Amino acid sequence: MPPDTPQDAATLAAAGRELTFPLALPIENRLLTLVQPLRVLPGKRIVGEGDWAGQRALTKLFIGAGSKRHYQRERAGVDALIAADIPTPQVITSGAFAGGGYYLLTEFLADAVSLAHVLATAPASAATLARLQDACRLIGQLHANGLEHHDPHPGNFLCHQGHVLIIDGDAVKRSPAPLAPASAHANLALFLAQLPLRFEAQSGALLDAYARPLPPAATLTALIAQARARRLADYLKKTLRPCTLFDVWHTLRRFTAVVREQSAALASLLDDPERAIAAGTLLKNGNTATVARVALGERQLVIKRYNLKNLVHAFSRAWRPSRAWHSWREGHRLSFLDIATPAPLALIEERRPFSLGLLRARAWLISADVPAPSLAERLAALPADAPPPAEAEALLTLMRTLHTHRISHGDLKASNLLWDGNQIVVIDLDAMTQHTSATRYARAWRRDRARLLANWPEGSELHQWLDRNLPEGRAP
Predict the structure, then answer these.
(1) Are 351 and 260 found together in one domain?
(2) In which band, very low, low, confident or very high, does the pLDDT at 122 lie, cut at 50, 70 and 90?
(3) In terms of Cα–Cα distance, which of 357, 352, 289, 295 is closest to 326?
(4) Which of 167-176, 385-394, 410-419, 444-453 has the lowest mean pLDDT?
(5) What is the count of structural domains for the chain?
(6) Is there a single domain that holds both residue 52 and residue 132?
(7) Which pTM value belongs to this model?
(8) d(CA 128, CA 117)
């Protein structure tokens, strides 16, 4: 169907992800054109930038089963925010359209950026802290008015012309005002759990901005830890199933997971990773792994193939997730926790057809290339025996963050830490583990600590500096 042909909700729902933009819909005797998508939930919802008779609008289309219920919930949440005088994009119009669908058009804030974008791209500056304080202030206003945003992640806060707004009315729930303390504290903890650890030192300023009664500090700390663990577990599950963020398919011969927005660009590598390795620059060619840097247009990527040394090794690996699977998961764990690592882009596992696709064979991991020297190379090139301030701060921040989350690397040699301008990037995640047992973590951390110290002679100033400053073995 041509993109300018008016469509209805049933057609859009049946199309799934196979939508052609721009989309045209007759709305209130005018033509709504959905110019480009921002988010698509196949058969359920389409969100994008629209043009309604010359007026730009953030457009939400509710389609498929349950469309009326979801629309009503969204509209009720937006109305509740407006009634409580909480900043949110203003409604232009809303209603039903042909085929059983519903629409909600709100003002399009062209120069707005999400708080998540600010946190990802801006340093821990006074301006960034001010935006976080604004967000906490809005959460306090929600709770004072008996409202709770069930998904208060930084992506649901917009920064626009020096102000912060809340979006996603579907997640706003109304209760008697003010919100019950237990619910309010858990909701505040859910927001704080999603902030990078570098802002922990500013937690006092954020809690002051919240301006509502708080639980004891130990209680809030426990609530934040619980919320962070739940969100991480949910996210890691998503990396292995089809969803908005990931494209996953499983056949008798192969299991593939890829970051959805990279799926089209990586198609040739996913189809034949061996051909890409053969054409690339070999970085390592060992018994257990082969690593190559490959060109994809103007991008440089790294493909790591996890080899099977012999028949016994192949048999032992067939029954459990591959090391590529493990590295894929741990890479996304680190990214989720705001710990720098080469972006994991795709996972491929060969499967044995006779086992109905259950038994594993070789595996590949495709990740972004980080052309940076190792920490050992970086420090060797500097005249001082102790790390300069930038490198020292980056290293200690990394170690404290890993320690806080009870993450052990398993092979923490300096060549597995890259110096990338102003941060340390962690690579080679095959043996990485996040521990639930404090005792096991303490043992693993002591091994990691000793392995890192072993990179420099025991009597050297650098070795002694690290020994003084690295966290001890006791689990947090």
Answers:
(1) yes
(2) confident
(3) 289
(4) 385-394
(5) 4
(6) no
(7) 0.84
(8) 11
